[in-house]
């Protein structure tokens, strides 16, 4: 019996190591910073890449002339031969995300925001569970937004990271100035959403409300006085990439049962949450669960008016995103980067399954 167990343990260890190495190899192979280093070592590639760096920097300040833009586009087309730069991706939430995105958008100088910069190959949805009923309902009559805040406080990681972003977003730059450090606020918000399990962070963001006090608490979750409005224009590569992810996963479809082209409301919610902490941060604009928007308007858009309105409609009139209209959704969501999480520490998976069972019981009670 011991021999059998030993063999099984060795096979399991080999499987875990194999998948871990596979994931690491995938991330390294397609990382844009690695691709950049390979390009710099080739003289012809480096010259084209440096030219595109200049083009990107100049375009961020003011639109290029037609001749200069043509030269930049020619350099971009010539760089197509360097395959690693064309297929590279960036890992969301990593410490190198911002410098990696700098490379990604440099070689895509003229690309639209619909390009997808993030790699999704290292995340597998383990559990996605919905329970839908009328929006005024709540388990045991509790204020779900208050309960979500309490649950977050009881979980040390959630509580500490939430306190971190609240401090970063409410601290004033000087005693006499009423402004905040929006860059630090955004960074702390992204850190919270990237490191806290969606079971807690999504409960805070998407908790159902039926009264004014609850709605106001939910609206203030992201400290909108600092994180929401952006008065100074600047380049935000993270925001550009997150918005591309949002467009990809929240594209509405009138023919789809889910309302989404990609048939995944869960991925749409994750993409929406990914916008928080960037220049494209959305938020509730009232106590209604269906009314979310960007802080900006299309005033002064000129001949870009229709393009601007399409962006705003992605938030205000999007069947895929506003899936919780007149509906209460409980979302249990967990991502497994490798088999190691399931085999070595099964407790998170067990915890999720217990929650799923509780929600199934609740759903059955409602349907009776």
Automatic annotation (TrEMBL):
SUPFAM superfamilies hit by this protein: GDNF receptor-like (SSF110035)
SMART domains noted in UniProt: GDNF
GO terms, biological process: cell surface receptor protein tyrosine kinase signaling pathway; nervous system development
PANTHER family in alphabetical order: GDNF FAMILY RECEPTOR ALPHA-3, GDNF RECEPTOR ALPHA
Family label: Belongs to the GDNFR family.
Locations listed in the record: Cell membrane
Pfam families per the UniProt record, alphabetical: GDNF (PF02351)
Keyword NAD listed: no
Main location: membrane
Keyword set, alphabetical order: Cell membrane, Glycoprotein, GPI-anchor, Lipoprotein, Membrane, Receptor, Signal
Protein name: GDNF/GAS1 domain-containing protein
Annotated membrane topology: Lipid-anchor; GPI-anchor
Molecular function per GO: signaling receptor activity
GO CC, one annotated term: receptor complex
Domain GDNF/GAS1: start-end pairs: 32-112, 145-226, 235-320
């Amino acid at each position: 019996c011991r021999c059998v167990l030993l063999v099984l343990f060795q096979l399991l260890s080999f499987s875990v190591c194999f998948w871990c190495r596979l994931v690491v190899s995938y991330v390294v192979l397609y990382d844009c910073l690695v691709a950049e280093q390979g390009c710099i070592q080739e003289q012809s590639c480096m010259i084209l890449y440096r030219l595109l760096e200049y083009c990107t920097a100049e375009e961020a300040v003011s639109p290029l002339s037609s001749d200069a833009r043509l030269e930049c586009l020619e350099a971009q087309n010539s760089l197509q031969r360097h395959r690693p730069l064309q297929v590279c991706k960036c890992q969301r939430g990593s410490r190198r995300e911002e410098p990696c995105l700098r490379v990604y958008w440099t070689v895509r100088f003229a690309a639209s925001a619909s390009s997808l910069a993030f790699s999704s190959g290292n995340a597998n949805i383990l559990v996605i569970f919905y329970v839908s009923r009328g929006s005024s309902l709540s388990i045991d009559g509790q204020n779900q937004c208050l309960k979500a805040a309490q649950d977050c406080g009881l979980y040390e990681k959630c509580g500490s990271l939430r306190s971190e972003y609240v401090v970063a977003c409410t601290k004033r730059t000087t005693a006499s100035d009423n402004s905040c450090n929006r860059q630090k606020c955004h960074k702390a918000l992204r850190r919270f959403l990237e490191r806290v399990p969606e079971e807690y962070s999504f409960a805070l963001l998407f908790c159902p409300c039926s009264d004014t006090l609850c709605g106001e608490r939910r609206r203030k979750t992201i400290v909108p006085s600092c994180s929401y409005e952006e008065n100074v224009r600047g380049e935000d590569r993270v925001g550009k990439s997150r918005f591309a992810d949002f467009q990809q996963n929240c594209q509405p479809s009138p023919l789809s049962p889910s309302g989404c082209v990609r048939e995944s409301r869960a991925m749409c919610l994750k993409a929406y949450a990914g916008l928080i902490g960037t220049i494209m941060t959305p938020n509730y604009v009232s106590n209604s669960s269906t009314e979310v928007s960007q802080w900006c308007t299309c005033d002064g858009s000129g001949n870009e008016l229709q393009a601007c309105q399409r962006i705003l409609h992605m938030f205000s009139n999007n069947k895929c995103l506003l899936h919780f209209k007149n509906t209460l959704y409980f979302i249990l969501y967990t991502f497994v980067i490798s088999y190691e999480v399931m085999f070595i520490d099964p407790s998170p998976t067990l915890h999720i399954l217990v929650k799923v069972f509780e929600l199934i019981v609740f759903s059955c009670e409602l349907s009776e």
